[in-house]
Design brief:
This protein has about 150 residues and is mainly alpha-helical. The protein has four helices and four strands.
């Protein structure tokens, strides 16, 4: 094998190596870009978590959260807060009504106390949803017959 053939063979090897390294470099750059995006997302999540922790420490005011792009009031679990003052005002009012009754109440009875016209079909459904949410979060107890009472 002559010197020229050796040089040409070595150049072919180096061309293949350069092509392989170019592909690897493109893959590395793509992965670096993905890591930059992931880092941004994690920073946002950590910031949101820090804001949520700060908001929970200020439990006296109900907290807004995003659901499907809309801001809604968060109803915390009973174990998360010291007392009912962390609930939105309308939920506090419902708890007061059930507590004042001294026994289980039906949704229409709570609605009557709130001034909701129970004769209109479907008018009590939002109230039923709120009472169910309070029961699911541990503030009320929903009995099998559909009535609600204060959880001890």
């Amino acid at each position: 094998m002559s010197s020229l053939e050796k040089i040409a063979a070595r150049r072919a090897e180096l061309d293949q190596l350069a092509e392989s390294l170019t592909k690897q470099l493109a893959e590395v750059e793509g992965e670096r870009e993905e890591l930059v995006v992931a880092e941004r997302v994690l920073r946002r999540l950590y910031e949101q978590e820090a804001e949520a922790t700060a908001a929970e420490q200020n439990a006296g005011t109900p907290r807004l959260v995003q659901v499907a792009g809309r801001s809604v009031l968060k109803v915390p679990h009973r174990s998360e807060v010291a007392d009912a003052s962390a609930l939105p005002v309308d939920y506090q009012r419902m708890l007061q009504i059930v507590k004042a009754a001294g026994g289980p109440l039906m949704v229409k009875e709570v609605g009557a106390e709130l001034g909701i016209d129970a004769s209109v079909p479907g008018r009590l459904e939002p109230l039923r949803g709120k009472l169910s949410k309070l029961a699911a979060r541990g503030w009320l107890h929903k009995l099998p017959n559909g009535t609600y009472r204060i959880r001890p």
